[in-house]
Design a protein that fits this description.
The chain is an alpha+beta fold. The protein has a single domain, classed as Nucleotidyltransferase, domain 5. It contains one helix and three strands. Strands 1-2-3 form a three-stranded antiparallel sheet, with helices on one face. Strand 2 and strand 3 form a beta hairpin. It is flat and about 50 Å long.
Length: 74
Amino acid sequence: MAKSKKVTKKRIVVIEPVGQAHINATFNNIIVTLTNNNGQTISWSSAGKMGFKGSKKNTPYAAGQAASDCGKVA
């Protein structure tokens, strides 16, 4: 007999017109996260997620691409 899977509810994130953008820039990557005022993540993106490899991940162009992708998803 197969084991039954535990069902969990998906969290509902309230999308507000005003929020915060958190930018985490390290030596190897740039991560952009958009959150609402409660701190719940609406969307996120990184330079590595956009397809940049190696030292190209930590460039201003890669940061701009990650930020625009994060805004499009939100």
